[in-house]
Amino acid sequence: MLQLHGFTDGPLIPVLSYIASCGGLFLGFRCAARARACEGPAQTRWLLLAGASIGSAGIWAMGFIAMLGFAVSGETTRYNVAMTVVSLLVAVAIATAGLLIAGPGRDEARSLPASGLTTGLGVTVVYLLAMAGMRMPGRLSYDPALFMLSLATAVVASTAIMWGAAWLRGTWATLGASLAAALGLCVMHYTAMASVRMAAASIPAGLIAGDSTGATAGSFVLPVTLGISVLVFLVWAAIALSPTEDAIRYDAELIDHIHRRSVTPLEAGAGRRRPAVNGNGASNGGHASGGLSPWALEELRRRPGPN
């Protein structure tokens, strides 16, 4: 049995993986909050952005960075590029699928457990694919009890992520949920790594970690870091340049109000003269424009008038 090391660089790698996961989850939650306020294609675009952020940085980058601290005595860790890319794509796909299952308008009692279970199983699959992409002579096996514990942790953490994406509002609440969910994902990963067993083998057999070919960790770090950084920046820019969730809801309510005021059924308008509306949205009789909620009216009063 080969000796495995999960913390070859001390606490630096676990801290970096935790920070990456927190950042990806936080941006994903903010995208999901905007998706709840939108409808149609706009809602789908925000959910796709949320899935890309949670899947790439929140789940996959956390696992990849954490594996940089994994080593086998006397062996050089290498990575199969194709398998590693596949694990990234699966992470994004499974996060997006979970968000769509627990999307806006769904029945929480049914959709949340289903999305959490789907995403949790997907996180475990991503981990197994990443392990399959590590190239070292030997034969992999897993301690069943620890591996099942990691699977259960993945389901719990994924359910928390889907709940946050479906309900969270506000920066501080989102940040707190991101910190907690990222911790759960890291615990899942290191529990799974603790279950790994590797036996020396002259000829690979069984669950194979691979052979001696592939890219080294050093040659892999730069492109992965640049790719994830660009994606995170684009998601952050989309959030920064877009209206907030409250602003999106306000604009939608205002547009709906204008539409309802401008379209009058013939039977309702026959034999009746509509009151003129002045520039402030009130009738000549002095009544404020009807149909808007008190919240929307208050928001309208707070908005600065034209210069």
Question: What is this entry, summarized?
Answer:
With 307 residues, this protein is mainly alpha-helical. It is built from ten helices and eight strands. A three-stranded antiparallel sheet has the order 4-3-8. The chain has a three-stranded antiparallel sheet with strand order 6-5-7. It has a two-stranded antiparallel sheet with strand order 1-2.
Write the topology of this structure.
Elements: E1 4-5, H1 12-37, H2 41-67, E2 71-72, E3 78-79, H3 81-101, H4 108-132, E4 134-135, E5 139-142, H5 144-167, H6 171-194, E6 196-199, E7 207-208, E8 215-216, H7 217-241, H8 245-262, H9 266-269, H10 294-302
Antiparallel strand pairs: 1-2, 3-4, 3-8, 5-6, 5-7
Which quaternary structure do these chains form? single chain
Low-confidence stretches: 205-209, 266-292
Structural class: mainly alpha
Rounded to the nearest angstrom, the distance between the terminal CA atoms is 76 Å
Percent in helix: 55-70%
* Strand ordering within the main sheet: 4-3-8
Helix tally equals 10
C-alpha-based Rg, rounded: 25 Å
Beta-strand content bin: 5-15%
Q: What is the overall silhouette?
A: elongated
Task: Describe the sheet with the most strands.
Answer: 3 strands, antiparallel
Query: How many β-strands, per DSSP?
Result: 8
What is the succession of H and E elements? EHHEEHHEEHHEEEHHHH
Mean pLDDT: 79
